[in-house]
Structures are given as C-alpha cells and as structure tokens.
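Section 5: illustrative case.
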C-alpha cells in the first residue's frame, strides 16, 4: 500500500481551494484566487509564503529565477492557473519547481472552469 505524502495537509489545502472556488466562482484572474487562498491559509493558521522565489542552480551557479505562487508549511508548492485545462507544460513547471527546491509535493490548482480542477504531483 502506497503512503500518501502530507495526506491531511493536502486534503486541507484542496478543501480551502474548493472554498475559494465556490465563493468566487470562475472568471477572475489568477492573482485574485491566489490572494483569496492566502486569506484562508492564514485563517487556518497555516504557514504560507506567497510568490516564493526559486533559484535554479547549474554547476554551483544560479542560472535562473522562478516564482512559485504559494509554498505551504515549507512542504507543498501550489501553482495556481486560470486555463482551459491542465496540460503537460504545467506539470513540467511544477515538477521542475519540486526538483529545484527538493520539495516532495506540489499541486496545480485550476480555477478557470465551473469545477475546480487540480493535479497532485509527487517528486
């Protein structure tokens, strides 16, 4: 049987994302959902860093800088989207964030449609 990484925290985050989606609906820009999710994460007393910087190293030199939308409890990266559908490039983006930060778990949360779409990615 496979162990789920950060199971309770994952359920809590997805529940909060659903709460944001249910309250705001769809059609806003990504930043609105990001800010709303931060409000709920703070309400739940979860440590969350918005616009968390990620440095990409190669041969001991920084070769790139990226920004993860939200890092929760220094354990889970959240990448928020407002797109028709989560596709491979979105998954690759989060997997690269996980590799660069040595974080084990990430979620893509897509707020564009009538129903919240999310993808769980494990490194």
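Designed sequence:
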């Amino acid at each position: 049987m496979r162990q789920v990484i950060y199971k309770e925290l994952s359920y809590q985050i997805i529940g909060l994302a659903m709460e944001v989606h249910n309250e705001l609906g769809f059609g806003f820009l990504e930043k609105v959902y990001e800010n709303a999710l931060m409000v709920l994460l703070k309400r739940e007393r979860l440590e969350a860093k918005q616009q968390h910087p990620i440095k990409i190293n190669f041969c001991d030199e920084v070769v790139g800088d990226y920004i993860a939308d939200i890092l929760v409890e220094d354990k889970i990266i959240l990448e928020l989207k407002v797109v028709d559908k989560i596709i491979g490039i979105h998954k690759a983006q989060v997997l690269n964030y996980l590799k660069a930060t040595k974080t084990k778990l990430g979620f893509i949360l897509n707020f564009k449609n009538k129903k919240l779409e999310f993808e769980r990615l494990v490194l």
